[in-house]
Amino acid sequence: MIPREKIDEIIERVSIVEVISGYLPLKKRGANYVALCPFHAEKTPSFTVNEDKKLFYCFGCHTGGSVITFLMRQEGLGFTDAVRTLARRYGIELKEYRSPENRQREELFKALLLSEHFFCGMLKSREGLRAREYLKARGLTEDVIEQFRIGYAPAGAERLCEYLRKNGINPATFERTGFIRKRDRGHYSIFVNRIIFPIKDVRGRTVGFGGRVLDGGEPKYLNSSDSEVFKKGSILYGLWQAKESIRKKDRALVVEGYFDLISLHMAGITEAVATMGTALTQNHIRTLRSYTTRIYTLFDGDEAGRKAALRGLATFLDEEVIPRVVLIDGTDPDEFVRKNGASALLKKVEQGVELFDFYLAELKKHHPTDSAEGKMRYLKEVLPYLKTLRDPVRREHYASQVAFVLGVSPQAVMDAMKEKAPRKEKKERRPAFDLTELTILKVVLRNPHLYDTRVEEALERFKDPFLKGVAEVVKKGFNGRTVREVLSLAELTEDDRIKAFITETVLKEEDGFIEKPERMLQDSVDKIMRRDIMRPSLNPSVIELVKRLEESGREEMAKEILQRLGIRKEQLERGH
Ligand SMILES: [Zn+2]
């Protein structure tokens, strides 16, 4: 690990304008420099660089961060490599420190990478012959096999473990990989006689594997279990290979299977990713959103496929980005593209409709609207979904579409929405974030000198799930001291949403907002403190109980009670 101070020093000493100029023609505009964004397609520049704040931010695709982030994105480097590159270029010496936790994580990544080597080697060996023939029969070329590091798990479940042990991996790490299990006599891999697809995170590190049987065994597909580095619900297969294309083409195609994805890539449709057999989740959408807002999900056009397309409806209406549905009749994308070619598939993609349009069309099929009764049924079905649409413009658009289908006025539909759930309506008008917490973050990010221990205390009490994450990063960054600039804050997290929030807040000019920052901060911090103190759980009997437990030497239990109630020790001593 590179110490925090070094990262600060690099960001401070390196001219972000100079580095980015090496890649893009920057033009001066006011205090900033602008250019056409290299990370998404655009005609007018929204990519902004600010030398004083040492940050860049794109107001179009919300990519932003320090010079380190830029280099990572532009050159496809990992964090450490980007830092090393800059340090070398600017003659800054690095002393790296590795904590025990870090070392354990590194060992886990090493075990996963070694496993990948093992599987790849096996595919090329004599034992891998049948697997190679199978891949060839499915149309995979040597190049694509190499590009996706496809491998083969041979018979003999313990052989991988032997290989790892020989290469210096501690058996204690085995079970943390998500695909090696313990049995009375030793460890064994869950992958036996399968084609292996290594799954990589966005930084290109191998985090898990998927395996397809070679003979008729069950299950046909098997994936690593979730682990500390592999979360099926948020990782997309192939994103590492696809991310630059997704940015450049400003769209992502989502398929379900490994072979679907690989066929698409071979056909030149390199902006495709796969969900590994599961449905698309909100986390997937959030991951993709930092690359593009145009997301197309491909489904089989049969009844089952149509049902699958609608499965996520309720979940996605609450998001800013709603995926589009592309139906492929009677087959999967893999077969379709091999039979009909890339342009036929892309034509289908262009015909993709927004999920809600698709839903309305399906609904109409099931509830013909040629009678008054049919109309009522249709309206009853659609209303709850209509109400969940977060974006008011979208909501109105679809309300008038429903009105058109029913042959009534748009106002009638809007009225019906209000009638059914007045409480929900009220809730929707509330801002997406907790306003008090948002204010504190905005003021502190733009006026770092105002940060003090009271602000820190307030940050610790944040409740908004997203802002809480931002607060943790801010707290880590300030670390009890005030800093001149926020500099490397955005680099303290791997979460792109938090990164974007921080850089956007620092760079966005909102005149009038910060007229009296001290006052605003003070008021908001007070509000947070009051909110906590008014919690009923801080009643005298709790204080009494905790005191007694502590006096009788049961500090652990006392601590746990406080934690469960969300009370801080200092608060208790103050007696309120
Ligand atoms: Zn951009």
Helix segment count?
29
Query: What ions, cofactors and ligands are bound?
Result: zinc ion
Strand order, main sheet: write it out.
1-2-3-4-5
The helix-and-strand class reads alpha+beta
Which fold name is given in CATH as the topology of the largest domain?
DNA primase DNAg catalytic core, N-terminal domain
Supply the CATH class of the largest domain: Alpha Beta
Radius of gyration: 27 Å
Beta fraction = 5-15%
Describe the structure.
- The protein has 576 residues and is an alpha+beta fold.
- The protein folds into six domains: 4-89, DNA Primase, Chain A; 100-223, DNA primase, catalytic core, N-terminal domain (DNA primase DNAg catalytic core, N-terminal domain); 239-354, Dna Topoisomerase Vi A Subunit, Chain: A, domain 2; 367-429; 435-533; 540-574, no CATH class.
- The strands form four sheets. It has a five-stranded antiparallel beta sheet with strand order 1-2-3-4-5, sandwiched between helices. Strands 13-12-14-15-16 form a five-stranded mixed beta sheet, with helices on both faces. A four-stranded antiparallel beta sheet has the order 6-9-10-11, with helices on one face.
- α18 (372-388) packs across α20 (410-420) and α24 (465-478) packs across α25.
- The longest helix has 25 residues, at 100-124.
- It is globular, with a radius of gyration of 27 Å.
- Residues 420-430 have low confidence and may be disordered.
- The structure holds zinc ion (ZN).
- Zinc ion (ZN) binds next to loops.
- Zinc ion is lined by residues 37, 39-40, 47, 58, 60-61, 63.
